[in-house]
Amino acid sequence: SSLGQGCHFQYVCTGQWGRHSCSLSPFALALQIRVDGPTNGALEYEIVQVVDTGPILRDMVFSVDHEHLYIMSEKQVSLPVPVESCGQYKTCSTCLGSGDPHCGWCVLHNTCTRKEQCERSSEPRRFASEMKQCVRLTVHPNNISVSQYNVLLVLETYNVPELSAGVNCTFEDLSEMDGLVVGNQIQCISPAAKEVPQIIMENDHHIVQLQLKSKETGMTFASTSFVFYNCSVHNSCLSCVESPYRCHWCKYRHVCTHDPRSCSFQEGRVKLPEDCPQLLQADKILVPVEVIKPITLKAKNLPQPQSGQRGYECILNIQGNEQRVPALRFNSSSVQCQNTSYSYEGMEINSLPVELTVVWNGNFNIDNPAQNKVHLYKCGAMRDSCGLCLKADPDFECGWCEGQNQCTLKHHCPIPENQWLELSGTKGKCTNPRITDIIPVTGPREGGTKVTIRGENLGLEFRDIASHVKVAGVECKPLVEGYIPAEQIVCEMGEAKPSQHAGFVEICVAECKPEFMARSSQLYYFMTLTLSDLKPKRGPVSGGTQVTITGTNLNAGSNVVVTFGRQPCLFYRRSTKYIVCNTTASDDGFDKVKVSVRVDKAKIHQELQFEYIEDPTILRIEPEWSIISGNTPIAVWGTHLDLIQNPQIRAKHGGKEHVNICEVQNATEMTCQAPALAMDPNHQSELTERPEEFGFILDNVQSLLMLNKTNFTYYPNPVFEAFNPSGILELKPGTPIILKGKNLIPPVTGGNAKLNYTVLIGEKPCVVTVSDVQLLCESPNLIGRHKVMARVGGLEFSPGMVYISPDSLLSLPAIVSITVAGGLLIIFIVAVLIAYKRKSRESDLTLKRLQMQMDNLESRVALECKEAFAELQTDIHELTSDLDGAGIPFLDYRTYTMRVLFPGIEDHPVLRDLEVPGYRQERVEKGLKLFAQLINNKVFLLSFIRTLESQRSFSMRDRGNVASLIMTVLQSKLEYATDVLKQLLADLIDKNLESKNHPKLLLRRTESVAEKMLTNWFTFLLYKFLKECAGEPLFSLFCAIKQQMEKGPIDSITGEARYSLSEDKLIRQQIDYKTLVLSCVNPDNVNSPEIPVKILNCDTITQVKEKILDAIFKNVPCSHRPKAADMDLEWRQTSGARMILQDEDITTKIENDWKRLNTLAHYQVPDGSVVALVSKQVTAYNAVNNSTVSRTSASKYENMIRYTGSPDSLRSRTPMITPDLESGVKMWHLVKNHEHGDQKEGDRGSKMVSEIYLTRLLATKGTLQKFVDDLFETIFSTAHRGSALPLAIKYMFDFLDEQADKHNIHDPHVRHTWKSNCLPLRFWVNMIKNPQFVFDIHKNSITDACLSVVAQTFMDSCSTSEHRLGKDSPSNKLLYAKDIPSYKNWVERYYSDIGKMPAISDQDMNAYLAEQSRMHMNEFNTMSALSEIYSYVGKYSEEILGALDQDDQAGKQKLAYKLEQVITLMSIDS
Question: Any stretches that span the bilayer, and where are they (predicted)?
Answer without folding.
Answer: 814-836
